């Protein structure tokens, strides 16, 4: 079995398909020396079957993964990935971080305590090596007020409050996953046996919307993870504690929403969540909700507001900008400071994935923020990390760029990293595209619905939406909007303008591009025609069953939950006659598109009665092949009924393929 470093090298190669990578680049990615990186590459090559894949080495160019048999390679990759996640071959663990992961996972998810002799035998390591690993674990636990204890009678165990244990679990096991919100539900699901993560997510979204609680998608996912941990620990018999400082009477909306969430969770999971969990969830909602209306604020918030204004006035003197008069900046900082102060009091630093970029591109604003806010009354008692200063500086950077005059045009911005970075991305877009874009709204992914997409011409998103198909062009960007992002947006604007000017455009795509794309994703085994299917449920069932024959690795319940979740956000019906259902996450080894033609038309949720072409798009788990290539190719076609009709009249796959190529290239 591959170890973690070898699998990480495969991941890195997969991200840079058919490109040479220098040993220095690979070493930096792994966090090791070049010599060590070359050792791992050599080990990896020894595991690979030359007929399946091999790592090529060319002096002056570096290393490249050459895959000869894609299907066999994918099976090899997923087999090793699953084995490593489950730690099936525990003797292959070489790195101290991997050993620590096994120990912590065993403590938190398997046994509350276990003996030293047991783990020495299991990991096949010396007593001194284990002691060093335990010291490292203790250093990681200390900021959470947790401690690793050893006892001859009890064994190895962790002491501390349940809430802080759960916070550590969330950060340690999930923080990397949470950087890409849309693909993390599958990881969370591995904890659960009685309810899916998608069901938890839908419950949270439903009740937060009903209570008019506005949360970012990162926050919602944090709450889903928090609930998943609670359910898992209740299932294993752990006691759930709560923060007694929470006052239900002062936070009625959050408390009522939490009651409804817990009641629905009890019903759906068949687990008797204790009432204490209501307080825990309500506290999450209280600390994370957006305070967009400050017309009536409490005394504590007013104190924070006054302190922030005082700091902004000092910054004005140095920067020459009217920062204290910027209401967006002021409201954003007030909203940020409530959970920020809570984290400081609990010694819970929040990692900032944008830190390096902010320091590189906005060092002056970063230093200005850190210099003045470090003098703010109440903050000088804490040791605040640069990650946290970077979050505050995002608000200041956005305010600075708002001082540039802009002319607005039309776009929906989707952002996951919070109010400060959302506002900064919005302003960056307005400044860069002042004559081309109007930023209609900035929302989180979980706020997307058909209404929010109405009359929108372009989506700019800081989270990866490559597996999600919309009628509208989507450009994925960095929050800091680099040159590559600007070029991509200009290209999207140019393509959209061309289509608007020509009311009946010829798609005119080069057949050299179209044919390989169609042959990669479409297959005769996944093509069906039916006059018996009458509605959406039957169509989905038929397409899934056929897809299983093509790729037996597909998990049917997971796929169905993903399809349901995707439709919850916005319709997958793309014209009067076409529906394109698809999951948010990868579900198969090989990406593919399953086709169902229903000449008589079928009903889709009672809203659309004449769907004649249903395309089930299934992305791969590795994310190596992006189905957005197919959706971009198909979207102009499926909205043109004249071009659709010949496809719907196809009698077999050969005819369908020929007509599809013809329509896309004529």
Oligomer: single chain
Numbering strands along the chain, what is their spatial order in the largest sheet?
6-5-7-8
Class from secondary-structure proportions:
alpha/beta
- Give the strand content: 5-15%
Classify the fold: give the CATH topology of the largest domain. Answer: Mannitol-specific EII, Chain A
How many separate helices? Answer: 27
CATH architecture of the largest domain: 3-Layer(aba) Sandwich
Shape: globular
The fourth-level CATH homologous superfamily of the largest domain is Mannitol-specific EII, Chain A
Keywords:
single chain; 666 residues; alpha/beta; Arc Repressor Mutant, subunit A; PTS-regulatory domain, PRD; 4-stranded parallel sheet; 4-stranded mixed sheet; globular
């Amino acid at each position: 079995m591959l170890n973690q470093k070898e699998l990480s090298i495969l991941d890195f190669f997969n991200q840079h398909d058919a490109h040479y990578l220098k040993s220095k680049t690979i070493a930096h990615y792994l966090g090791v020396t070049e010599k060590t990186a070359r050792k791992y590459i050599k080990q990896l090559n020894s595991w690979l079957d030359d007929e399946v894949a091999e790592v090529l080495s060319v002096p002056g160019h570096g290393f490249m993964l050459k895959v000869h048999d894609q299907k066999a390679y994918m099976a090899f990759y997923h087999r090793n990935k699953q084995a490593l996640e489950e730690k099936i071959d525990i003797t292959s663990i070489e790195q101290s971080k991997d050993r620590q992961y096994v120990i912590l996972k065993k403590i938190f998810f398997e046994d509350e305590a276990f003996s030293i002799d047991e783990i020495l035998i299991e990991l096949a390591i010396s007593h001194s090596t284990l002691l060093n690993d335990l010291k490292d674990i203790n250093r990681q636990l200390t900021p959470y007020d947790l401690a690793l204890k050893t006892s001859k009678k009890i064994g190895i165990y962790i002491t501390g409050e349940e809430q802080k244990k759960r916070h550590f679990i969330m950060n340690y096991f999930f923080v990397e996953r949470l950087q890409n919100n849309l693909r993390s539900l599958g990881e969370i699901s591995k904890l659960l046996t009685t309810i899916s993560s998608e069901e938890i997510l839908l419950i949270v979204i439903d009740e937060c919307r009903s209570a008019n609680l506005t949360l970012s998608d990162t926050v919602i996912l944090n709450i889903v993870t928090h609930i998943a941990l609670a359910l898992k620990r209740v299932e294993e018999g752990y006691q759930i504690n709560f923060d007694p400082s929470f006052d239900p009477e002062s936070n009625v909306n959050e408390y009522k929403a939490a009651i409804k969430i817990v009641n629905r969770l009890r019903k759906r999971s068949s687990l008797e969540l204790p009432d204490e969990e209501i307080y825990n969830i309500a506290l999450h909602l209280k600390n994370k909700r957006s305070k967009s209306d400050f017309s009536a604020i409490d005394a504590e918030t007013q104190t924070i507001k006054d302190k922030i204004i005082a700091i902004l006035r000092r910054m004005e003197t140095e920067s020459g900008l009217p920062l204290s008069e910027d209401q967006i900046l002021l409201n954003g900082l007030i909203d940020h400071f409530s959970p920020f102060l809570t984290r400081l009091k609990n010694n819970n630093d929040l990692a900032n994935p944008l830190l390096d970029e902010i320091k590189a591109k906005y060092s002056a604003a970063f230093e200005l923020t850190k210099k003045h806010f470090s003098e703010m009354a109440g903050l000088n008692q804490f040791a605040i990390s640069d990650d946290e200063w970077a979050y505050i500086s995002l608000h200041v950077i956005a305010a600075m760029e708002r001082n540039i005059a802009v002319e607005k045009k039309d776009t929906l911005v989707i952002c996951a990293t919070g109010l400060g970075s959302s506002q900064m991305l919005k302003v960056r877009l307005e400044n860069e595209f002042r004559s081309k874009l109007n930023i209609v709204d900035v929302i989180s992914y979980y706020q997307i619905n058909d209404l929010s997409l109405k009359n929108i011409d372009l989506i700019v998103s800081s989270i990866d939406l490559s597996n999600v198909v919309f009628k509208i062009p989507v450009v994925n960007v960095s929050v800091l909007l680099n040159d590559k992002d600007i070029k991509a947006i200009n290209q999207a604007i140019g393509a959209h303008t061309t289509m608007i000017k020509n009311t009946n455009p010829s798609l005119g795509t080069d057949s050299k591009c179209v044919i390989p794309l169609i042959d990669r994703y479409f297959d005769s085994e996944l093509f069906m025609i039916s006059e018996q299917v009458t509605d959406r449920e039957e169509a989905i069932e038929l397409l899934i069953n056929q897809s299983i024959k093509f790729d037996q690795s597909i998990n049917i319940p997971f796929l169905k939950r993903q399809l349901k979740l995707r439709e919850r956000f916005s319709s997958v019906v793309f014209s009067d006659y076409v529906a394109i259902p698809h999951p948010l996450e990868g579900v198969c080894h090989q990406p593919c598109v399953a086709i169902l033609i229903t000449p008589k038309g079928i009903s889709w949720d009672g809203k659309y009665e004449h769907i004649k072409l249903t395309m089930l798009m299934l992305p791969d788990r590795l994310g190596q092949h992006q189905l957005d290539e197919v959706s971009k190719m198909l979207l102009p076609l499926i909205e043109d009924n004249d071009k659709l009709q010949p496809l719907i009249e196809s009698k077999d796959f050969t005819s369908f393929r020929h007509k599809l190529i013809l329509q896309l290239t004529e």
